[in-house]
Amino acid sequence: MLDGHVLLGWLCSCALLGLLACAPRPAAAYFGLTGNEPLTILPLTSEMEEAAVKAHYKVCDRLKLEKKQRRMCRRDPGVAETLMEAISMSALECQYQFRFERWNCTLEGRYRASLLKRGFKETAFLYAISSAGLTHAMAKACSAGRMERCTCDEAPDLENREAWQWGGCGDNLKYSNKFVKEFLGRKPNKDLRARVDFHNNLVGMKV
User: Fold this and answer.
1) In this structure, are residues 198 and 185 in contact, taking their beta carbons and an 8 Å threshold?
2) What is the annotated signal peptide range for this record (predicted)?
C-alpha cells in the first residue's frame, strides 16, 4: 500500500482546491466506483471462444459508463479488464487509507447518495484516487501486452533504457495519461463542479 500520509496529503491538498465553493449536483457515472449503483467487481468469463471475444462488451455495458466512455471501452478488449482492475485497486486503496476514519470508503446506501450529491472532501478523494488507479492500471496493461492500441514505453529515459537492456518493458505512462484524460475528460464547461471534478481527475493522474 502507498504511504498514507504522503498519499492523503498530496491528494487532499490538491483535490480540495475550490471544492467547498461548488454548488451541489449529482456526479456523473465514474466507471463503477462513483456511479449510480453499488460497486461490483465483475468476473470476466470465457466459456466459449466466441463469448470471450465479446465478453468485454458486456462488462463495458454493465459498468454504467457515459456514451464516450462506453465507446472507448468497447473498441479495445483490454480496456474492460483494465477498468475492472482500476476499480478494485482504487476501492482497496481508498479503504486502506480511511481504515481508521469514521467513513471508510463505504459506497452503498445513504453514504453513496450523500457523496454523489454534495461536494465533500471525500468525493474529491474518490475522483482523485480513481483517476490514479486507472492511470496506473492502464500503464501496466500496456507493458503487459494486454492492450491493442499501446505497448511498452519507448521514452529514452535512463530507467526505460535499462529496462530494455535487460529485456524488460517500461510502463507506458505517456499513453496511459493520454487515455485517462480523454476517458474522464469533458468538453469545456462553465459549471464549477464539473471543472473541479476534472481538476481532481488530473490530480490523480499526477500521483
Assistant:
1) yes
2) 1-29
